[in-house]
Amino acid sequence: MKTKKKQTEAIEAGRGSIQTDLFKLYHACMKNAYSLTEEAKLLLKHGHNARAFFLALTAYEEIGKAQLTADYITDCVSVEEFERAFKDHDLKMAYNQRYISLSQETKGEATLEYDLREVKSFVRARMKSLYVSKHALCPQLPSALFTEEAAAEMIESVIEELISIKYAEWLNQRIGSKGLFK
Prior knowledge:
Blueprint: E1 2-3, H1 4-8, H2 19-45, H3 49-73, H4 79-84, H5 89-96, E2 99-101, E3 111-113, H6 120-128, E4 133-135, E5 138-140, H7 142-145, H8 148-172, H9 177-180
Helix pairs in contact: 2-3, 2-8, 3-5, 3-6, 3-8
């Protein structure tokens, strides 16, 4: 099981020596996702809905970065995708919504697919939760755009994602897509 980019990438030599550092990186990303979620809960508790939403969505991105790192460790994503995981908001969010496809093109090998277009609404919401926007010339403050329910729902989605990953890792004794889609 690999992404399309990984299927076309040349075989990389000497990766074994960096595995320990990659595992540390994966666990640091997951730890940060948990911390961001806890901080989002604190903000929500004190009525800061927009910022709580922002931090929860950032935690969701951090989970995507962790999953890309895990899939790099297990040789499922390309070097390019791994490097982009540390810069590209869209990719990190889209990777959490990845799925497996089987097609004739890949000669029976499962392909990890993700759609960057699917997360455009998340990216817009992320920006609106942090910055003042405008409708015509009227300012739209983040605090006026995000309800307690919207922030709580985003936090709950992140918590569910974290729980499902932790359970899959425990159950399958693997990380990343190989743990989730075993």
